[in-house]
Structure formats: structure tokens, C-alpha cells
Design brief:
By secondary structure, this protein is mainly alpha-helical. Helices cover 70% and strands 2% of the residues.
């Protein structure tokens, strides 16, 4: 082994732990999430005979005797409680009513004496719902494919009809799109608030030196040294009707009754802005300390108003830091869960709460993965736009 090969081996050994870390804790979970979002093998695994029987079935016609016999045999032969439970959840998410229907049908089929002539089984006699087409259409759709865009479409309140055309879900069927829009609006509001507070704060921190700068940076970094749950609980106490903020304002005579600062959008934005402010201040501050301090006085000496000097001289120079901080704040705010859950009301929950419900409450990993993919695509698009604009700016300069 020559010297060059030894150097390459050492270089690889140095980066190998990082590569393994990224692979185990980022790439594999990401691929798994994407796979769950488009994978739908439950019905095909639980109903193999039914999957074969529905291959040539026209969804606009009544179910054939062969389909009923195959379904009855699949239900009776399925002894895997976990698989059967997953099947019921999958079918019930497509057509409400399957939860009780499948349980009732399975109970009645298990009472049949061996040998069972499945061709003579009349599922409609067990429950009248088996005579309704929507239930068979849901089974046909679920059993005939293992890859589907159903979850991705449902994430934005859309679905495919019997003919395969994409259409919007009824307004009372799902609120994923509404919550998704609310998430983006809240994240944008927090980003704007961080910009309005972060730029002046970073300018003040960059204009002083010594212990004053250390004190200002320590104040803005303090939230990063404290648990997110503790910070949110502190705001829960501060924003109450009898909390410190309302008590102080009433004591000063500025208000006569407590302001509604908790269990609403205002409280969520205040708490999230406090938590995410360091992600705005630090990028802007890092750019400001590299800018000569005599630029603003020079502009003033030429007769420029302070605001004109800021917008035409300083702001263009720090724009890279502002955009970088905005991306950090916005993309982080999209996934916030604890703060909206504790501070916000029922109409202030973000998409992270819905993802948590599908993952832990409904055990619907496909929908959780699909909603996560929507957020992932949104953040990738934002980052791509930022990189494109940055590249074009460097080329022009």
C-alpha cells in the first residue's frame, strides 16, 4: 500500500462515523417514511384469494359470487390478529363502517361447520352492507395494488374516484389541507416576527463590544440552553389571564381586562418566536460583524436619512444572513409540535399534531409518512429556490 492509498484510507476512516450516523439516523428513516407513504400491501397480504377474484371485476357492477366466496374464505382463514387489524384499519379509512362490518362477518364465518362450502355463503345475509357497492370498491382498490398514491392525495384532501380521476374530498371528509395551510401561515408569521425582532437585536449586538456583546448574545442564546418543554411551560404561565404579562399591563393601567394571549394563535406565535429567535439573530450577527462600522455614518454624512441608509446600504449587505435565518426559522417552525399543543387552542394545532395522531393514535403510518413527505418536499423546494437565487447572485457579482 503506497502513501497515497494510506492517506485516502485515513480520510475515509475519519468521515466513516459521520457517514454511518447519517445513514442510520437520517437516510434509512427517510427512505422508510417515503416507502410507507406509497406502500399499501396489507389488503393484498390479508386477502390473497380476493385479490385474484377482483382482477377482472368491473367496479360499477355487483360483486360476483366468486368474489364473495374468495372474501369469505380469506376472512375465515386469516388467523393473524395483527394483520387482520391492519386490514380493518386500512379498509375503514377508505370506507367508514368496515370496523364493525369485518368484526361481525368474521364472527359469523367462524361459526360455520367444516367443511365449508364458500360458494354457498351469502355475505349479504350476515350484514346488508355487503350488498352495497362502495364496500366492494374499497376492497377491490386496496387488494389490487401494493403501491398507491392514495395517502399522498389524502394528505392534500384529494382522492381518486372509481374511474381513476383525481377529485377533491368533501369539505367534511378531511381537514389536512386546511391544517397544512395553517401550518405554513403560522411558520411564515413566526419568521416575519423573528425578522422584525432579530435584525435590530443583531445590529445592537454587533455595534457594541466586550461584556455588553457577550450579555446580549447570552440573552438570545439562553433559549437554546433550556429544554423546549420548560420554555413552553414558562410561556404557558406568563400568558395566562392572571400571568405576569396581563398582571403588569393591568397594574400599569394600560388595559382594563386580561388580553387573550393563550390558547390562540397569538400565544403560539409569541412562544415560537421566542424559541426560534436565535436561529435568526446568529446568521444576521455573523454577517454584520464583517461589515465596516463606518458605512452608516458615511451614508449619513452624505445626507441620507437613517432609514434610507438602512434599506439601501446595510440591508442589501446582510440579506444573505436574513435569508439564511428565515429559512432556518421557517423550516424549523413547520415541524413544531409541543408549543402549539400546549399554548394553542383546537384551531391552532399544526400539521405535526396530525402526523402524531396518525402515527401513534390511529397507527396509520402511511398517512403519517405522506404528510411528512409533503413537508419534506416543501422545505426542499424552499432550499432549492434559495440556492438558485444565491448562485445567480454570485454569478452576477
Amino acid at each position: 500500500m503506497n502513501e497515497l492509498q494510506r492517506q485516502r484510507l485515513k480520510s475515509f476512516a475519519l468521515v466513516a462515523p459521520l457517514v454511518v450516523f447519517l445513514l442510520v439516523f437520517f437516510v434509512i428513516p427517510l427512505v422508510t417514511m417515503m416507502k410507507e407513504a406509497v406502500s399499501d400491501p396489507v389488503a393484498a397480504q390479508a386477502l390473497p384469494l380476493t385479490a385474484q377474484a377482483v382482477e377482472s371485476w368491473d367496479p360499477a357492477t355487483p360483486p360476483t359470487p366468486a368474489m364473495q366466496a374468495a372474501l369469505a374464505q380469506d376472512i375465515r382463514n386469516n388467523k393473524d390478529a395483527q394483520l387482520f387489524g391492519d386490514l380493518v384499519r386500512r379498509l375503514n379509512s377508505a370506507q367508514p363502517g368496515f370496523r364493525t362490518l369485518m368484526g361481525k362477518t368474521r364472527t359469523q364465518l367462524e361459526k360455520l361447520e367444516e367443511p365449508v362450502d364458500y360458494a354457498q355463503v351469502d355475505l349479504a345475509s350476515i350484514d346488508k352492507k355487503w350488498a352495497e357497492l362502495p364496500y366492494w370498491q374499497a376492497i377491490s382498490t386496496a387488494a389490487s395494488t401494493t403501491l398507491t398514491d392514495r395517502n399522498l392525495l389524502a394528505a392534500v384532501d384529494m382522492e381518486r374516484d372509481i374511474s381513476g380521476e383525481i377529485r377533491s374530498l368533501p369539505s367534511d371528509a378531511s381537514a389536512n389541507l386546511t391544517i397544512m395551510i395553517r401550518t405554513f401561515v403560522t411558520a411564515l408569521s413566526v419568521t416575519i416576527a423573528c425578522i422584525l425582532i432579530g435584525i435590530p437585536f443583531a445590529m445592537i449586538a454587533a455595534s457594541v463590544e466586550g461584556w455588553k456583546r457577550q450579555l446580549l448574545l447570552g440573552a438570545v442564546l439562553l433559549p437554546l440552553w433550556t429544554s423546549l418543554l420548560v420554555r413552553t411551560a414558562a410561556w404557558f404561565i406568563l400568558l395566562q389571564d392572571q400571568g405576569l404579562i396581563n398582571s403588569t399591563l393591568m397594574a400599569l393601567g394600560l388595559i382594563n381586562s386580561p388580553l387573550p394571549l393563550i390558547f390562540n394563535r397569538t400565544g403560539v406565535i409569541i412562544a415560537m418566536t421566542h424559541v426560534l429567535l436565535p436561529f435568526m439573530v446568529l446568521p444576521v450577527f455573523s454577517v454584520l460583524i464583517g461589515i465596516p462600522k463606518n458605512l452608516m455614518p458615511a451614508a449619513a454624512s452624505l445626507g441620507a436619512h437613517p432609514l434610507r441608509s438602512f434599506f439601501h446600504v446595510l440591508l442589501p449587505l446582510i440579506m444573505r444572513g436574513v435569508v439564511s435565518g428565515s429559512l432556518l426559522v421557517f423550516m424549523t417552525a413547520l415541524g413544531y409540535y409541543i408549543t402549539p399543543a400546549l399554548i394553542g387552542g383546537a384551531k391552532d394545532q399544526l400539521i405535526s399534531s396530525v402526523i402524531a395522531f396518525y402515527a401513534m393514535g390511529a397507527a396509520n403510518w402511511g398517512m403519517a409518512g405522506a404528510l411528512g413527505m409533503v413537508l419534506l418536499v416543501a422545505t426542499i423546494l424552499l432550499y432549492t429556490v434559495y440556492m438558485r437565487l444565491s448562485t445567480e447572485k454570485e454569478v452576477r457579482s
